[in-house]
Amino acid sequence: MSTAPRLQAAKRDWGHDETGCTVLHIDMDAFYASLEMARHPELRGKPVIIGTGTRSVVSAASYEARRYGINSAMASARARQLCPDGIFLPVDMAYYREQSRRIFTEVFEQVTNRIEKVSVDEGYMDVSAALTQWDRPSAIGAWIRSEVSRRFHVTCSVGVAGNKLVAKMASTNAKPDGMLVIPLARHAEFVQMMPLRGIPGIGPSLEKRLKAWGVNTVADLAAMDETALAQACGSVTGAHGLWLASRGIDERRVTPYTPEKSVGAERTFSADTRSLRQVRDLLRWACDDVASTLRRRGLMARTLTVKLRFADLSYQTRAHTLEQPFDTAGVMLPEAVRLLRGMLGMDAGASASAGTDATLPKLIRLAGVSASGLTEARETVIQPSLEDLMEEHDAVGKRPGDGTTKPQRLNRAEQALDAVRARFGSGAASLGI
């Protein structure tokens, strides 16, 4: 959900010379809320807010909800005050990610493989090679908007320009459900009509610093000497980037997909807790979520990290690299609990039984896990341990035809869970470990 400023004056015809405008930025409109309305048509036209719970924040809001002043990262409690009749829904990241994957695969990749996915709801495309089949970049943008709407019943906005900076600013100002083409000759003019926050990367702190130097717009920024700009923002490198941006110049290339570095899941408790059982139950959910994501994407991981955020908002992480790659919660959870105890200075043997609770030494606000050291499952070689080999040998002797190890049985069981959830919904079955 973009909160970047938009100018109505920018949403106009900038000309039709598309020479060199081979970069598209596609940004889905109110993506999470739009997807919920796509699968629940009765919600269309209503203020839909994604984010529930007294301590949660808004992840997305429909355009109807935004009229009440609701935006992303706002506390959900505040959103309820602004829009008491709003329809508040929980975040369903598995659904949003799957729909995003389909949009990128079934629509964007039909044009080119030169795609840089920035997040689940936005990405860049370099369509220079695709122009041998398409007449104009704007024709590609129009087709993408039409196909996304037809197939997925959501809308997107497209910016067409000669570089990533201007294309992104164009898509922002084309929202909702629009397209802006900015010819090369008009890049500087387009950028310089914007407020400072219109340039991606200029946040409240830098904006305040620049305004203290009398810089209130991008046009003011463009008129500033680069040496003085370095003094204003406190960085020579940062000043050069701003100097280029204020002229509509961006030397970054569209970088096609790079493998994910980690997969994680975390949640905030409804109230700070000292209960080991509550924290352990949340870690169970997080391990299950991460493991199912790994399997769905055909990945395995080597390193597990546990994250805790305390009541004072400080946080701590601890990681461990396992001997064998993993993609099951059955492997992850015992390790996550061990890391949790170590982080809190607890005796590894204390309260070890599942039926026993314990009081933690610090109040916990949030907990989660992440898996990193990712590899493609089909290319990952798993070397059985001596214990695995002995177990497999014993299994063959005692249960003919079932020569499997515990990790293999865990994987098979959790794949069965995946199948049940895929057919009956994510809440149809839960992990019992």
TrEMBL record:
Statement: the UniProt record of this protein carries the keyword Manganese = no
Task: Establish whether keyword Disulfide bond is in the entry.
Answer: no
The entry assigns this protein to a family as follows: Belongs to the DNA polymerase type-Y family.
- What PANTHER family would the database entry show? DNA POLYMERASE KAPPA (PTHR11076:SF33), DNA REPAIR POLYMERASE UMUC / TRANSFERASE FAMILY MEMBER (PTHR11076)
Q: How does it assemble?
A: Monomer.
- HAMAP family, A to Z: DNApol_IV (MF_01113)
Name the UniProt record assigns to this protein: DNA polymerase IV
Q: Gene encoding it?
A: dinB
